[in-house]
Amino acid sequence: MVVDASALLAFLQGEPGADRVEEILDDSVIGAANWSEVAQKVRASGADWGIASGLLLSYRLKVEPVSRRDAEAAAESWRRGSGLSLADRLCLALARRLDLPVLTADRAWEESERIEQLRR
């Protein structure tokens, strides 16, 4: 499963759905852009990124680089007013490339058979 930054942040902060994230972390992938987003938010909160990243990487979570194909797909999927950031669109492009579902806590995303909302 591909995890969005919002799902990892929910896990790190012990928010509702953290247990679901922990269930899938061992076999999950996060894109490098979303990994950067997690690092930024953890640091901005004053938490220790070294500890947080160490915890996340103690699972078999894989950080996948952004490919040219992902970047182009993210650009193609941009729509004014969609509410999806570049990082969101890169996450979705990665999921399409790897043919995996996405776990997100971002309510701006529509739920579908390929997108699992952490918070309903």
TrEMBL record:
<dbReference type="GO" id="GO:0090729">
    <property type="term" value="F:toxin activity"/>
</dbReference>
<dbReference type="GO" id="GO:0016787">
    <property type="term" value="F:hydrolase activity"/>
</dbReference>
<keyword id="KW-0479">Metal-binding</keyword>
<keyword id="KW-0460">Magnesium</keyword>
<dbReference type="GO" id="GO:0004540">
    <property type="term" value="F:RNA nuclease activity"/>
</dbReference>
<dbReference type="InterPro" id="IPR022907">
    <property type="entry name" value="VapC_family"/>
</dbReference>
<keyword id="KW-0540">Nuclease</keyword>
<keyword id="KW-1277">Toxin-antitoxin system</keyword>
<keyword id="KW-0378">Hydrolase</keyword>
<keyword id="KW-0800">Toxin</keyword>
<keyword id="KW-0255">Endonuclease</keyword>
<feature type="binding site">
    <location>
        <position position="4"/>
    </location>
    <ligand>
        <name>Mg(2+)</name>
    </ligand>
</feature>
<feature type="binding site">
    <location>
        <position position="88"/>
    </location>
    <ligand>
        <name>Mg(2+)</name>
    </ligand>
</feature>
<dbReference type="Pfam" id="PF01850">
    <property type="entry name" value="PIN"/>
</dbReference>
<comment type="function">
    <text>Toxic component of a toxin-antitoxin (TA) system. An RNase.</text>
</comment>
<protein>
    <recommendedName>
        <fullName>Ribonuclease VapC</fullName>
        <ecNumber>3.1.-.-</ecNumber>
    </recommendedName>
</protein>
<dbReference type="InterPro" id="IPR029060">
    <property type="entry name" value="PIN-like_dom_sf"/>
</dbReference>
<dbReference type="GO" id="GO:0004519">
    <property type="term" value="F:endonuclease activity"/>
</dbReference>
<feature type="domain" description="PIN">
    <location>
        <begin position="1"/>
        <end position="110"/>
    </location>
</feature>
<dbReference type="InterPro" id="IPR002716">
    <property type="entry name" value="PIN_dom"/>
</dbReference>
<comment type="similarity">
    <text>Belongs to the PINc/VapC protein family.</text>
</comment>
<dbReference type="GO" id="GO:0000287">
    <property type="term" value="F:magnesium ion binding"/>
</dbReference>
